């Protein structure tokens, strides 16, 4: 797997696109007075961009053309989504997915 610097511009672009909405609550007093939909959008724009990037990297192969990845990774993503949905917290979902993948690989799967 070649881990060059080709994705650095994309990462910078994603940071540039999501940072203002993530920093707005810290920089703008009274943001809680915005309509609830606007606050939800601002709160969720960063995690949604991260989730989209992670999903593509976990669910598609790097072949030309890309194809759906089969194995433990999609199951780990599904587990993470389920835990986050149930707990409304990202960290327990990520921990559950990492532990799932580690145990599955230790047992010889994937």
- Residue-averaged pLDDT: 80
Give, in order, the helices and strands.
HHHH
Work out the radius of gyration: 17 Å
Q: Give the class from helix and strand content and strand pairing.
A: mainly alpha
What does this structure look like?
This protein is an all-alpha fold and 110 residues long. 70% of the residues lie in helices and 0% in strands. It has 4 helices and no strands. Helix 1 (8-27) runs antiparallel to helix 2 (36-59) and helix 3 packs antiparallel against helix 4. The mean pLDDT is 80.
Please name the defining characteristics of this protein.
single chain, 4 helices, 110 residues, mainly alpha
Sequence-ordered SSE layout with sheet pairings:
Elements: H1 8-27, H2 36-59, H3 72-87, H4 90-106
Question: In a nutshell, what does this entry contain?
Answer:
This protein is an all-alpha fold.
